[in-house]
Design a protein that fits this description.
Rossmann fold, alpha/beta, binds nicotinamide-adenine-dinucleotide, 16% strand, eight-stranded mixed beta sheet, six-stranded parallel beta sheet, 18 helices
């Protein structure tokens, strides 16, 4: 029996699985039975942690099949420019339902690559033929959320490594299925959380690792980005796929830009883990008001159907007693913000704009943030070695979000070139995504506590420095 069929039969792939039974017509579910059911599914899957430090054969030139050639797909093509020209990678296949996007991507790729990628287009399932290890080593997935898990599973089943845009899953069953498939096939499966490579987040990580923060106790992070206009625009997200999620789901739908870096700061899965959460969504208003204010009757009708609250707040606890406040809001008008707050026994940082406080003990010192000049000294002294190494390259080439997208793509391809394990493994992506699914379950149960299950078979207990610091 093919692995994918087996997983389907064991119920691991059902989009309408645990989460929907929990929020069924009976009204509020029972968190205890939900947690027990999830534990049973993990037990049945027999997860064993074997993909945690996975290394695969070195691939001197990584052949990439790229799925989804919209906003993000086009941007990641730019990130590959230098890697292709240096001979580290080649875009060997591209796929999108839209033939015009395929044509546009071909022209974009031709500006820096001599070989022409094989194209797969024209219908919803054309992508499946590109998941072929004769054609590619790595599937780079930039499609709408509902296709991420399905495509990553297919890639691994067919012998390719999988790298997916965020979130890689949004049901508990999908997180479990991804881990199981990576363990069985010994293929890499990485969620491309680019904010983990941002200069400020890496600087904070380095300061934490160097002891500047003392004992880190608490963090606040978020994805606060007014996307109303883009979600309504018929030409931005293909078929308005993103808006549709807000008509069907309520919770934190996009956890990982905020949570990913905090999990690095807190050694999550490398000595500590996320244990439980509670989540609350505010009333919805801003998106439905924006829809109602259009002069499109179809959008006006949607205004009555928005279910995702404007501001979702999730509190997460860790095994070592740390706390995390995670927020999500893409409805309200306000400047972009990921908060970037970290509190330790010796220092505190707030982001947007960046402010650093160094504690001098209990004596009164005015409780002032460091001056810009003093913060600049800390920035220079504690620049993350990865950023120092790649800064010139990141500045000289198309950068993507200030350089972090280039650094992310560089690390992925160079690790594969050298047969090294990746900076983030399948357990990281599955866990960060699982928080989103559990936030939905908690919101549906009047903010009741949800336990966060272990997908690593206990490996999270082993203390380990984050691999992003390795010299590769
Ligand atoms: N990490 C980041 O900073 C970042 C930034 C932007 C977007 N994203 C993520 O990237 C993903 C894509 O977002 P986007 O803004 O590019 O959306 P988009 O709508 O512009 O692009 C999605 C593309 O997928 C294609 N597609 C849909 N169904 C397909 C199928 N069956 N086969 C092949 N192609 C198919 C669409 O035609 C479209 O071109 C999302 O997961 C989003 O969350 C991440």
């Amino acid at each position: 029996m093919r692995r994918l069929d087996f997983l389907r039969m064991s119920g691991l792939l059902g989009m309408s699985g645990l989460l929907s039974s929990f929020t069924s017509s009976k009204g509020l579910g029972q968190p205890d039975s939900f947690a027990a059911e999830m534990q049973q599914k993990i037990k049945n899957a027999g997860l064993n942690g074997s993909a945690f430090h996975l290394k695969a054969d070195a691939i001197p030139k990584v052949r990439i099949a790229l799925f989804g050639l919209g906003n993000r797909g086009q941007s990641l093509i730019d990130m590959l420019n230098w890697l292709v020209q240096e001979g580290h990678a080649e875009i060997s296949a591209i796929s999108d339902i839209s033939p015009s996007k395929v044509q546009k991507a071909k022209e974009q790729i031709a500006s820096f690559q001599t070989t022409v990628p094989t194209a797969f287009t024209g219908n919803d399932d054309a992508w499946e033929e590109a998941m072929n290890d004769d054609l590619a080593d790595l599937a780079l997935i930039c499609t709408p959320w509902e296709l991420h898990t399905k495509m990553a599973l297919k890639a691994m089943e067919n012998g390719l490594h999988a790298a997916s845009e965020v979130p890689i899953a949004y049901t508990p069953e999908d997180s479990i299925a991804l881990v199981k498939m990576a363990e069985e096939t010994e293929r890499h499966c990485i969620m491309l959380e680019n904010c983990c490579y941002n200069r400020e987040e890496l600087w904070l990580l380095n300061m934490i690792e160097e002891g500047v923060f003392g004992t880190v106790t608490h963090a606040e992070c978020a994805y606060l980005h007014d996307l109303r206009q883009l979600m309504i625009d018929p030409t931005y997200y293909e078929n308005r796929w993103r808006l549709k999620h807000h008509l069907a789901r309520n919770g934190n739908l996009y956890t990982t830009h905020g949570l990913g870096p905090v999990c690095m700061y807190f050694d999550i899965l490398r000595g500590d883990t996320l244990t439980h959460l509670t989540s609350m969504s505010s009333k919805e208003a801003a998106l439905s008001e924006a829809l109602a204010a259009t002069n499109d009757p179809q959008l006006q009708a949607m205004a009555k159907k928005v279910v995702c609250g404007d501001v979702n707040t999730t509190l997460i606890g860790t095994a070592k007693g740390r706390s995390i406040m995670l927020q999500f809001d893409v409805h309200s008008g306000r400047p972009y913000n990921r908060l970037d707050k970290v509190v330790g026994s010796k220092a505190t940082h707030y982001g947007y704009p960046s402010r650093l406080y160094i504690d001098h003990g209990a004596s009164w010192d005015g409780h002032r943030w460091l001056s810009d000049e003093m913060e600049a000294e800390y920035r220079e002294k504690y620049e993350h070695p990865l950023w120092s190494r790649l800064q010139r390259l990141a500045e000289e080439h198309p950068q993507g979000h200030g350089g972090m997208d280039f650094v992310m793509m560089y690390r992925l391809i160079r690790c594969l070139n050298q047969g090294e394990s990746l900076d983030m493994n399948v357990y990281d992506g599955a866990l960060w995504s699982l928080v989103g699914a559990l936030s939905e379950a908690s919101v549906a149960a009047s903010s009741q506590r949800m336990d966060i299950p272990d997908l690593t078979a206990g490996l999270w207990k082993r203390p380990e420095k984050h691999p992003v610091g390795r010299d590769i």
